[in-house]
Amino acid sequence: MSTGLDNLKHIVVLMMENRSFDHMLGALKQKYPKINGLTGNESNPDTKGAIVKVQPNAQFQSQLDPDPDHHFPGVDLQIFGAPPGPGRVANMQGFVKDYFSQTKDVNRSHNIMYYFTPDKLPVLTTLATEFAVFNGWFSSIPGPTICNRAFAHYGTSFGQVGMDIFYILDTAVLSIYERMVQAGHTAKIYYYDQPSSTMEIVNLLKNQPQIFGTLDQFISDCAGNTLPDYSFIEPCYNDHPGPDGGQILASDQHPDHNVREGERFIANVYNAIRTNPTLWQNTVLLVVYDEHGGIYDHVIPPACTPDGKIASADATGTGEPFAFDRLGIRVPAVLISPWIPRGTVVPGTEDPANAQIFEHASIPGTVTNFFLNGDAKRTVREQKANTFLGLLTDQMRQDDDCVVFNNLE
Amino acid sequence: MPPKVIAVPTTDPGAYNPNRPAGTLLQAQALHMREALISHVHELTTLLNIDMNSLKTEADVSAYVHRATALLHTRAGKAAKK
After folding, report:
1. Which residue among A258, A312, A377, A400 sits deepest, i.e. has the most Cβ atoms within 10 Å of its Cβ?
2. A333-336 and A283-289 beta bridge pairing
3. DSSP strands (E only) in A236-306
4. Domain ranges across chain A
5. Tens digit of pLDDT per residue, chain B (82 long)?
6. Among residues A333, A282, A366, which one has the least CA distance to residue A35?
7. ipTM for the complex?
8. Does B21 touch chain A (CB under 8 A)?
């Protein structure tokens, strides 16, 4: 066990919305070749047969409207480039075609290939290069938000691949928060505020209100050294008036919400931990996205160990059932701690000999392993998922070696 | 030596648009909230329909109080977050 792990007292997870790895971090490959991003030659065909290359033209807002398709049939087309049929193989060639089905405009369908340059995302790209970035963190299902977030909370989606309410189907599976509380630990879900609230786990809001807090409480808990053992943070999911008549912007980065506001949110969460010297030394922060949001990524999702669940052909909408035997599309994931060396790149599928593949079941799996010694009942996917605390080392970086963000008021 | 400080650019003031049509995710969130509220109503209705005269024993009362407290506590928990 490393000294960093010996010192660890808090795990904090911030889950953002609907952006792919290449879209947010792909440009880093140019300066950091170990990061499995974009060469600039990746492409998709459009509906007229033209080759559309990735381009560094992503904008903060107004570019991905309508919201790119990220439901199961759409993602299936994005991955395979063609509808289900004999002999097809995953090739990541269907993103432009799928976006055309929404935009009905060939030129606008090309927007799905756009990516950000690092100067536009100073927060996420700085954290990715200053701490650890995962080349192989994938969404758990090639589908939308609800089922993917379920893997972060429960380690399963209970066989669901869509947006339906599923959690009442199997009450024997406990959320990571319930497991923690039952074992005498502390855990909290911090949603932004009541008008934004929590996403997807309203069953816990009804039955376990004590495990919820707001972002203001998170900031206060960080300052007061009262942070729970495990914290899960939700960004603001909608634009709404503030309590004083001001304007609260969505910070989840879900298209078409402003990406820069999400940058500021990530920086705020980071700073809340970073500026408390005690907390900074004994906390690890994971910033991860729930799914790719229909936006291009070049890495073919790998297979995974099935958990025995089957989504029917009707449920998938593709005409074929899904056995939960492969992961969804790759998402940005960054692990932050002063015990992580600058420039750590966790290899993914580009380095088969050393690949460490992660998915959202890695979150409850890691928390259960660390705080509960793996004693609590874990799902099949959690048992098979890699855990991420092995990235903490024996060497803590000096205070002046770790960045701080400002201009956040 | 102080740590490296990175200034985070401010968001475009024109970004705020509460009149933006709600997407499928927010629609689903509202639906989930509604489902949760329905189960609250069921429990509340069940409790209100219990005849107070039927609570004869300490066990009867404690069972009723238990369910009422659980429901009220949940509501109080929500209100406390304002």
Report:
1. A258
2. antiparallel
3. 240-241, 247-248, 283-289
4. 3-29+118-401
5. 788 999 999 999 899 999 999 999 999 888 888 888 887 788 889 999 999 999 888 888 888 887 888 777 655 444 444 3
6. A333
7. 0.90
8. no
Nearest CA in chain A to B41: A206
CATH number for the segment(s) A3-29+118-401? 3.40.720.10
DSSP-assigned letters across all residues of A189-200: EEES-TTT--SS
A164, with CB counted inside 10 A (0-12, 13-18, 19+), is middle
Residue B64 falls inside a structural domain: yes
* Residues contacting A161, CB < 8 A, separation 6+: A72, A141, A143, A147, A311, A315, A316, A322
Query: Is B33 exposed, middle or buried, given 0-12, 13-18 or 19+ CB atoms closer than 10 A?
Result: middle
A401 close to B1: Cβ distance less than 8 angstroms: no
CB contact under 8 A, A405 and B20: no
Contact A402 B28 (CB under 8 A): no
Chain B positions touching A203 (Cβ under 8 A) are 36
**Type of residue at A109:** S
Using 70 as the pLDDT threshold, list the residues of chain A that sit under it.
Answer: 165-170, 200, 206-207, 209
